[in-house]
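re: ur msg from earlier - yeah i can do the adenosine-5'-diphosphate complex, just paste it... oh wait u already did. ok heres what im feeding in:
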Amino acid sequence: MVLTCEGVMRRFRAPGPDAGGDVEVLSGASLSVAAGEVVAVLGPSGSGKSTLLHLLGGLDRPDAGQIWWGGFPVHEHAPSDLAERRARYVGLVFQHHYLLSDLTLLENVALPSRIIGRPDEERAGELLTRVGLEHRLGFRPSRVSGGERQRAAVARALALRPPLVLADEPTGSLDRHRAAEVLLLLLELAAQEGAAVVMVTHDEPLVSQAGVRLLRLEEGRLREASERAAAT
Ligand SMILES: Nc1ncnc2c1ncn2[C@@H]1O[C@H](COP(=O)(O)OP(=O)(O)O)[C@@H](O)[C@H]1O
Ligand SMILES: [Mg+2]
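and the outut:
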């Protein structure tokens, strides 16, 4: 398995002065994802989807449970010690693009390769071309549209050919149609690259049509919902 997650728990201190104790956001979430497989996690706002993705990406640490990238036990390490391994293993597409504003799109997409000491602008240019941005290589993020920024973020996530891609549905500046476009583009590229994908979305019609494995995050646990996807 590219990714295994077993009995993952995460709780946060409730906000506010008179809040009573902790809120348990994840209470035993489990999931396995094989190479090349695409999983969509559905759940309403506040159900813990982003919390789960952060844990799966080793950006946050579970209070209990295990997370494995292949044979590597992510849960045994502090997020700050995982940077190098994460860069190679996981492509992250966040709700906000996090492109660096002083760099061009080409430089942004080439940055991961620079960081690991193997600069590869050719790969960056090729990925940007595949997401339809060949005419924007020299532009800074502020000079392109929100949809173009998200497409560049997709290209950046794939720069180092990670076995695993984690994507939080692009929202914010993007309307539903453009957000769907970015998700479909991500699916297409990940399939070409053979990467496993876990994406978080509340666009159930979209992912049902895409024919991907569906999981529902409910009461802090993941349940298979694939039968509904297969029916359409
Ligand atoms: N760092 C944090 N500190 C405290 N509470 C948090 C933190 N991160 C998330 N939460 C809470 O966890 C719950 C789930 O949040 P989130 O994972 O962002 O949900 P979703 O992405 O499904 O909308 C929310 O109630 C949120 O307020
Ligand atoms: Mg979220």
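cool cool. The chain is about 35% helix and 25% strand. ping me if u need the other ligands too
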